[in-house]
Amino acid sequence: MKKIIFTLSLFVCVSGMYGQVTLEECQRKTQDNYPLVRQYDLIEKTQEYNLENAAKGYLPQFALSAKASYQSDVTELPIKIPGVDIKGMPKDQYQVMVELQQNIWDGGGIKMQKKQATAEADVEKEKLRVDMYALNNRVNDLYFGILLLDEQLKQNALLQDELERNFRQISSYFENGIANQADLDAVKVEQLNTRQKRIELSFSREAYLKMLSLLTGEELSPETTLEKPVPEKMVNAASEIHRPELSLFDAQTTGLNVQEKALNVRHLPRFGLFVQGAYGNPGLNMLKNEFSPYYIAGVRLSWNFGSLYTLKNDRRVIENKRQQLGSNRDVFLFNTRLQVTQQDQAVRSVEKQMRDDDEIIRLRTNIRRSAEAKVANGTLTVTEMLRELTNESLARQAKVMHEIQRLQGIYQMKYITNQ
User: Fold this and answer.
1) Alpha-carbon distance 57 to 52, whole Å?
2) 91 falls within a domain
3) Residue 214 needs a FRET pair 20 to 30 A away by CA distance; which of 142, 197, 312, 366 works?
4) Can you say how many angstroms the Cα of residue 144 is from the centroid of all Cα atoms in its chain?
5) Crossing angle of helices 109-175/23-33, nearest 10°?
6) Is the model more confident about 46 or about 177?
């Protein structure tokens, strides 16, 4: 039983280290791992705080003030009554006041503050989605770059096997006097060049894997294999565009609409209640030269018409911003359509080239075999035969490169259109 458990545990560990990964998994993990994703919560909290602050505008507002003053003259009674000493107001005056204000109607100002806070948060969220969406393109580049390196490493291994076979064949010719040392050296040089190329490809793959590991937040070992993606549906130049940038433009337009509505709030009247409690000298009885408490309560109306002077220009400014936003949206759609068309033509071009790849490989293989036969008969040099062997290898590399380029082009169109 313990042996079974140990075997299963080992299998799970090995599977985690050397398992297969897909493009969709890498994109999803990158979206979850990238540090920028934490800003979603920060935007939500900022919006929550702004809404709470706006709602507190309905709460009673307290104010405390104090003053001490001295004035050159005071109000006095213009008459004098014999036998009566009427003291006037003191020239030095003191007051401490607490005022409570309760908003009854502010013309919709608090409501507009809430709408503006929500609109600003929506714009920030959409900007963040645009930045997060751009990560998919970085993942695509790394993922397909690794796939291409994998195929090149496979072709490199095949070329090494072929060169090893030729080296053994040339060695037998050398023993029989058909080939010389220079022929063996020529094959050996090609073997060394191929090994150097493999080292270069291996280090490039390792670097790409490390970058992909940083994006996804998971360690990808050199033994990790990447699964070739299979597109669920094809994207063409006529496909609809659903990029997050369009949602950003919509959110910014909504924000401008809220700003325009907020202009009407500025010149509306405001009603409220107030209560003032004070202690000072003089009090409400100005003829009484002593400290006394008092209070005043009432209803207050304020109506500021100053904003009407700039209302027309403020609306024009918002309208200009709206037109700029519409222009930016049109430019974005135009450039995106241009990219889709360009990418669509690139995919079609690769697909057309792929039709001849197998035939080119077949012909190159025949030429290489013929060259080997000529070397055996002594009618062709080893150097010329190696050139044909290299051409055959390049033809095979071109085929796998076209396959990866086609896949990458299709997923690039999916990224451009967000299909």
Assistant:
1) 9
2) no
3) 197
4) 20
5) 140
6) 46
How many domains in the chain? 1
Does residue 64 lie within any of the structural domains?
A: no
Range(s) of the domain holding residue 209: 22-59+106-268+303-417
CA distance 270 to 108: 9
* Angle, CA 249 vertex, CA 139 and CA 337 arms, to 5°: 60
**DSSP type of residue 112:** H
Give me the amino acid identity at 171: S
With left for phi above 0 and alpha for psi between -120 and 50, is residue 418 left, alpha or beta? left
Average pLDDT over residues 277-304: 87
User: How many angstroms separate the CA atoms of 104 and 116, rounded?
Assistant: 21
Q: Is residue 100 part of a domain?
A: no
pLDDT reported for residue 57: 84
Query: What is the sign, positive or negative, of the torsion defined by CA atoms of 342, 348, 354, 356?
Result: negative
- Quick count: other Cβ atoms within 10 Å of Cβ 27? 21
Q: Identify whether the C-beta of residue 278 lies closer than 8 Å to the C-beta of residue 94.
A: no
Distance CA 72, CA 90 (A): 10
Question: What are the residues whose beta carbons fall under 8 Å from the beta carbon of 360, sequence distance 6 or more?
Answer: 395, 398, 399
Q: 385: domain CATH number?
A: 1.20.1600.10
Enumerate the β-bridge partners of residue 293. Answer: 279
